[in-house]
């Protein structure tokens, strides 16, 4: 069973070409830059640590990369709520 999961993961990683899965990663670093005053040094270190833990979990398990992007997006949502105080206004 474990061998089949590893083979399936290799197939997924071989066909990964980036694109849409990079958007949460880029958004993460932009949010850290924009919110550097609100987060402070400790907040930034915690966010980077959480991202590293998410990466390691997905790297050493048979979870597909698309779910990694989902986990990153959830982290981005939390950062948006912290940086913009839970209220993002669009338009007027």
Please give a structural write-up:
This protein is mostly helical and 92 residues long. Helix content is 74%, strand content 0%. It is built from 4 helices and no strands. Helix 2 packs antiparallel against helix 3 (36-59) and helix 3 (36-59) runs antiparallel to helix 4 (65-83). The N and C termini lie far apart (55 Å).
What labels would you give this structure?
92 residues; mainly alpha; 0% strand; globular
Outline the fold blueprint.
Layout: H1 2-14, H2 23-34, H3 36-59, H4 65-83
Helix pairs in contact: 2-3, 2-4, 3-4
What's the order of the H and E elements?
Answer: HHHH
Largest sheet: none
Assembly form of the protein? single chain
Return residue spans where pLDDT drops below 50 for at least 5 consecutive residues: 11-15
Distance from first to last alpha carbon: 55 Å
What share of residues are in beta strands? under 5%
How many helical elements?
4
Radius of gyration: 16 Å
Residues in helices, as a percent range: over 70%
Q: How many separate domains make up the residues?
A: 1
Assign an overall shape. Answer: globular
- Judged by helices, strands and strand pairing, the structural class is mainly alpha
Chain-averaged pLDDT: 79
Q: Using DSSP, what is the number of strands? A: 0
């Amino acid at each position: 069973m474990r061998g089949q999961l590893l083979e399936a993961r290799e197939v997924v990683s071989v066909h990964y070409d980036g694109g849409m899965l990079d958007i949460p990663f880029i958004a993460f670093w932009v949010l850290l830059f924009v919110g550097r005053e609100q987060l402070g040094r400790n907040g930034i270190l915690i966010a980077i640590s959480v991202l590293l833990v998410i990466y390691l979990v997905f790297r050493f398990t048979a979870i597909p990369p698309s779910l990694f992007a989902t986990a990153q997006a959830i982290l981005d949502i939390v950062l948006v709520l912290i940086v913009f105080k839970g209220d993002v206004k669009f338009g007027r």
